[in-house]
Design brief:
single chain, elongated
């Protein structure tokens, strides 16, 4: 987010303060004899400068608020499109879903019987997520026996 608007607000405040100081000095030197008229003119210029500063700061705030609202709307639209895409791909009659199921359906060749399987891993904490689906698939076969050998020195590192 840009902070240039903040610099502009500070510049506007300093410029309006300097202008008020110069105007008050000029009015007091000009109307030394008539102080009530000088105070009335000073109040009018003060109100005009403060009103001008308030309007500009409101415009700056509203423009940044509108920009933030636009970003929120864009994020919601992207989220909605992602959700609709996921919904479309996970429907059972979707061609993309059939293609994904075809890719995920990994089968072993028919010529291998896979009666006994030995799986050797180094530490079970990391390999469980990689070999978990394989072990799950093999254990659901009725004719397959799965053996898992974990080679570890037994130390726990934190």
């Amino acid at each position: 987010m840009k902070l240039s608007w903040l610099n502009q607000v500070f510049e506007l405040i300093s410029a309006s303060t300097l202008q008020l100081y110069e105007d008050s000095g000029r009015f007091l030197h000009q109307f030394v004899g008539n102080q009530t008229q000088a105070l009335i003119l000073l109040q009018e210029t003060w109100r005009a400068n403060v009103l001008h500063w308030a309007i500009l700061s409101y415009r700056r705030f509203s423009s940044t608020a509108i920009e933030a609202l636009e970003h929120i709307i864009y994020a919601c639209l992207v989220y909605l499109l992602v959700c609709l895409g996921i919904f479309y791909t996970t429907r059972s009659n979707s061609p993309l879903w059939r293609w994904c199921k075809l890719i995920n359906n990994v089968r072993f060749p028919r010529q291998h019987k896979l009666d006994r399987v030995l799986l050797v891993t180094s530490h079970p904490d990391d390999e469980c997520m990689f070999f978990g689906p394989l072990i799950y698939t093999l254990t659901h076969r009725s004719s397959c026996q799965v053996y898992v050998l974990c080679l570890s020195n037994g130390t726990i590192t934190t």
